[in-house]
């Protein structure tokens, strides 16, 4: 009888940073009387979950899988008499656990999988620590965002981090949101959002949520090396996942297979322009030359001429390869000596007889449909003056990698980076007028583009990967550092462009080669009226106003707080004291029901600033130059609205612009969504677009500036959008005036509202869906055609 009460270890397995121990026990043993204690070699107590398999004769312990040493396991049973009986006591080191797990997966596979993740199959009386987002910060930290969900009795759970010895660790940075009540299957539960940052230093960490309740199981999330890689691969919030090596290689391979099945003679005939493709050659490897030439000869569109300018006639093999070219559309121009990239290219431009000049590098290749797509666009829109397409990279092993899915024409993005690059096609009259300038060699194409956009902005983006940029030892595709002089040449070209355009700005180098920053100066210091709707939330509003008053270097502003149905006495007392404390703060009262658009429209009518800044009360200024930076963009005649970069209090991105979502069919739900949401504040994002200022379709009115003249021309916010999407609708109407909406990456604030988890339910959810429907009705073209500033590939 004594032995029948013992627990016997019969199976063990590992899974996602946890170890699951299976003990055979007598089926008559009441699990509610069982307690287990697991300690490390150092005596640190670990969290442990206790479960019973459905067969009733197996007890399972779930324990964090630490990095070294071993564990001491003790299982006891409290009898009805009050006596405590030992069922098991033993020690296992982590090496033994690893090999026993492998054994059980091989020879007790069914049982091992029954044990694994059993803690995720229990809901009542169980705390769950659920990861929802995982990413690596530029500093090398792992960022995990998730939620602790547990029984209502555990709403005050102790949440903490263990190191690999089982000791409480201060190596991580844990941010916890407010606790929300939820009801699932009629059970009242609590949810607490969290953000955890831990160093990716090779050590194992465990996040624990312990409700300190005898009848509730603790939850824990483990971060060993394998688990970290799994979370990063499955929970990454990064946009443009389609640009990852595996995803893109697969899609491009399918395209190659598809193209190989086509007979281009059956393509729809296009009576289009003559393209003059200009290629300067300089010590070009013969294999690269042949690949480049064949990619032109194999174009589905045939009305082209290929002008090859050979500036290295002493290269015998190259000269011999050129002599073998027999297609009459190919013209070889041999120079006596190298005139530099600009001089050599200009020879080709001068020789061009086509309607459009196409700039093509000597070691790159084209997709067979590159010229066909360009001809289609010109046929549909004869006023097109320039075109460019998406591109990828052709590496040394012949793989197509790292696609660049580009924005449609984006003036402010171009002013900090030549995102257009290839395949640039320009109306011949512009190409012959502008030519390339030798003094900007290395960035001659950037200088050319900046001068081009001063003459025309009929520049069209073909959103397909039609250009393959070869990665070679001397190519800028491999490293911009191979041509360091290009960085300063680009800065000089940008500065000249700003000067020619009468823009009071200074072009500056950055830590990233060929990415620039413009420090705009203010032409004047007009009054900026800051409008802040508010209902109660005294401490939230106090933090907001104090941060504006104490941290803002631009001083010509007024703050109007629009009181909206507050009920707390403390709120009205604060209104009295804050207007006394700051002479530029006023309080106005809105008497109607809550309508964000109407409240702001009302507030604007009580202000006098030339510029308006709409600001949520739950924001906090971080850096002093935020207001002057936003104003420096908004003062431009071509700009209608400017948005800031907003961070969660855990220093991840809450807002870096708003993107409309392309619906591939009528059944899909659309956005809009915040781009680069949840990235680390310093993470550059895809093509550095999370950290550079640029034009976008929309920004959030949680912090948005506009001109009063623009606001009045649009009759303010559309009051049909009572709560949601009023800012998106406003921005899209700004764009309908042919004015730009700019995301200012240098205007940095915290935005607290969305850090803690929240839900729209009942009538609020109905209203949200109704307003989204209004947005889809008003701006259907965005849902059909996609966002012009972000590729549809960004969310796939």
Describe it.
27% of the residues lie in helices and 31% in strands. The strands form eight sheets. Strands 27, 28, 29, 30, 31, 32, 33, 36, 37 and 38 form a ten-stranded mixed β-sheet that branches. Strands 16, 17, 18, 19, 20, 21, 22, 23 and 24 form a nine-stranded mixed β-sheet that branches. A four-stranded antiparallel β-sheet has the order 1-2-6-5. By secondary structure, it is of the alpha+beta class. Helix 1 packs across helix 2 and helix 11 packs parallel to helix 12 (485-500). The model is unreliable at 755-759 (pLDDT under 50). Helix 5 (286-297) links the parallel strand 16 and strand 17 (304-310). It is built from 20 helices and 38 strands. The longest helix is centred in the C-terminal third of the chain and has 17 residues, at 762-778.
List keywords for this structure.
alpha+beta; 796 residues; nine-stranded mixed β-sheet; single chain; ten-stranded mixed β-sheet
Query: What is the number of strand segments?
Result: 38
Largest sheet: 10 strands, mixed
Sheet-strand content, in percent, reads 25-35%
- Class by helix and strand content? alpha+beta
The whole-number mean of residue pLDDT values reads 91
What is the 3D shape? globular
